[in-house]
From TrEMBL:
Transmembrane segments: 7-27, 33-51, 58-78, 84-102, 109-129, 135-154, 161-180, 186-206
Lineage: Bacteria, Bacillati, Bacillota, Bacilli, Bacillales
Annotated organism of origin: Cytobacillus praedii
Superkingdom of origin: Bacteria
Keywords: Membrane, Transmembrane, Transmembrane helix
Record's protein name: Uncharacterized protein
Amino acid sequence: MKKYDVGFAAAGSMMSILFFMIVNYVTSTEYLWFIYPSLALLLWPIGLYCAKQGKHNLFSILCSGLIILFLISENIIHSPVHPWSLYAIFPILWWPILIILGKRAKTMSIAWVGSISIILYYLILNILISPGYPWAIYPAFVVLWWPLSLYHALKKTFFTFSVHASLLIILFFITVNAVSSPNTIWAVYPIFCVLWWPLSMYYFVYKKRRVN
């Protein structure tokens, strides 16, 4: 029975998708809701096949491709004026890229290439699609944690990590404050809280050294 599992999953998913299509057409033709369960149903036989064959690279490629096609379809159907699917496509592509790279994905060079490329990608989208507000600073702040965390994890410099990470957070809040509401200096409040992180780490390291 086990060798027929993939075939059963494929047949079951196709029958279910056809059923949802018919129900969608009969009950509510003005809204194509059947595409939502169809995405999940398509992942069933794909995931089962790749798991049995140990093809993790293929699974990441097929799943990321399906998700991208789903987002593009949603974008075209519901809001063709604004290409919002572009915001998600590039980060999703990094899923199969990192899986294919394998152990090399854990290197600093890949972390820097990935973070810089994502920052530049969102910066270009910010300038071309929605230049009214510099929202690219938000994904840039998130992505910079990738090389920062990896570097200190490899070096095992946890106190230095708390210092550098706190500086990154402080710089982020100052930038957001200056861009969003320059007349109100509210960044001092989260900055004060963030400073306790390296201070507590220093106290812990200092006491540990004295005890030893």
